[in-house]
Amino acid sequence: EQSDDAGTTIASPSSMPTARENYVTQRIGANTCDACGAVVAPDDEKCRTCGEELSSSPATVKLTRKEAAGLKTRRARDIWIAASLCALVFVFIFYARRFASFRQEAQTPPPTLTEAPQPTPVPSSALVELKPTRVIVDSSFEGYNATPLTDGEIDVRRIAGMRYNAGNWVSAETPGEHWIELDFGAPTQVAAVYLYWGFDRDRFMPSRLVMLETPADNQGEGLNRWKTLTTLEPGGDYDRTAFEFAPVLTTRLRILQPMRGGPTGRPFVMWVREVKVFGASEDHATP
């Protein structure tokens, strides 16, 4: 210390340095990560789970979370786009293959089918007339009966001079089926059936559709079971319809006119003047 002339004491600077305590600023340790919430140790610089710096400010953490959410959204969108593209590629390949298959099928010619050889009908010169033992019809128009069907008369001029019901058979005029059944009494080989149509007022009356049938068991046991041997559509103003076929062994034949299959203008009747049945001569008979 020093005194001035007035006796005032003046403090002089000390030559001894002022002692100062050294302080080290330390990070405030966090128990959990602000980014992911994982538990962390006090001396960790970064989160061991998500890698986030533990000294980041709340704003930085919020931004980091926002970036992470955006990244997650972009990844989900990319995955969805990739899956959609894969699906589209799959659909394109599928339909491309189908189209190629259809084109190949369209360009491939169908296989050639070889039909089995059909038995040849017996020539007319080798036919021998047969006589059925019984003729049955489904019905008869009033005044008519089945007798003319096998009386041997086919000449329309002579029939025209007879009574109206003497040279023709006419079924009842009903919309159901009409038929003529020929019974031979024993198994017989048949090769042809000629059907001579009735006539009315100088016009023949052929059925529009007619079928030739044999018993389904071919032995005559099933009285109500028939199978079609052949079918014809006589059509216009014709005198005769001929069923000709390879010989068949049967005890009965039936000539069937389906429902409404009668002559033009009279579809509910069947109108026939004669039925002739033929077998094959011995030279053409089936063994």
User: What oligomerization state is this entry in?
Assistant: single chain
Which CATH-level-2 architecture of the largest domain?
A: Sandwich
CATH topology of the largest domain: Jelly Rolls
Query: Given the structure, what is the number of helices?
Result: 2
Question: Which superfamily, in CATH terms, is the homologous superfamily of the largest domain?
Answer: Galactose-binding domain-like
What summary fits the major beta sheet?
Answer: 8 strands, antiparallel
- Residues in helix, %: 10-25%
Give an overview in words:
By secondary structure, this protein is an alpha+beta fold. The chain folds into 2 domains: 34-96, no CATH class; 124-280, Galactose-binding domain-like (Jelly Rolls). 19% of the residues lie in helices and 28% in strands. It is built from 2 helices and 12 strands; from the N terminus they run ββαββαββββββββ. The protein has helices at residues 58-107, 156-160, and strands spanning 2-3, 9-10, 127-130, 134-137, 169-170, 178-197, 199-200, 203-204, 210-215, 226-232, 240-257, 271-280. The strands form 3 sheets. Strands 3, 4, 5, 6, 9, 10, 11 and 12 form an 8-stranded antiparallel β-sheet that branches. It has a two-stranded antiparallel sheet with strand order 1-2. Strands 7-8 form a two-stranded antiparallel ribbon. A hairpin with a 5-residue loop joins strand 1 and strand 2 (9-10). The longest helix is centred in the first third of the chain and has 50 residues, at 58-107. The radius of gyration is 56 Å and the shape is rod-shaped. Residues 23-30 and 111-117 have low confidence and may be disordered.
